[in-house]
Amino acid sequence: MATRTPRRPGRRKSDRPNPTDVHVGSRVRLRRNMMGLSQEKLGEALKLTFQQVQKYERGANRIGASRLWELSRILDVPVQFFFETTDPVRAAPLGGFAEAAQEEFDSDPLRRRDTRELIGAYYQIDNPAVRRRLFDLAKALAAEAAGTPD
Question: What H or E segment, with its residue span, contains residue 144?
Fold first, then answer.
């Protein structure tokens, strides 16, 4: 009679990703989009498939320390960039961290398709002067909408 090896502990398919993994993945996506990189290009730099990059960005797969270090080098940011946005003074108590992180992730405007398309279109403009004029226009429109001078 063959003996079965015990299953390795881990996340079941039906379990939700850890909110920290989701947050780190969203920061990877944010920086990748800011740099105008596709998932394919980032995957090539990491020697991974774009599907693996997708899993990292969704938080479906955890990013190990060495991979996070490599991402920080490729995306030209310090490692702490991937963990930023939690204000220690206003941080939710530890018991509510998961819910607060999930709410932050769900309401993040950087996850919206139109935001990603706008960033992509911006980086497709080759002329730095034109890109700067578009940037200045966007800032002026935002200031006008907020009722403040730029």
Answer: helix 128-146
CATH number for region 16-84+96-110? 1.10.260.40
Mean pLDDT of the region 18-31: 91
Q: What is the pLDDT of residues 43-99, one digit of tens each?
A: 999 999 999 999 999 999 999 999 999 999 998 888 888 888 754 334 444 444 445
The model's pTM is 0.52
CA distance 116 to 139: 17
Long-range contacts: 81-88, Cβ < 8 Å, 24+? 81/27, 81/31, 82/24, 82/27, 82/28, 83/23, 83/24, 83/27, 84/27, 85/23, 85/27
Backbone angles phi, psi at 30, to 5 degrees: -55, -50
Q: Where do the structural domains in the chain lie, given as residue ranges?
A: 16-84+96-110, 112-150
Query: What is the distance between the alpha carbons of residues 63 and 55, in angstroms, rounded to a whole number?
Result: 10
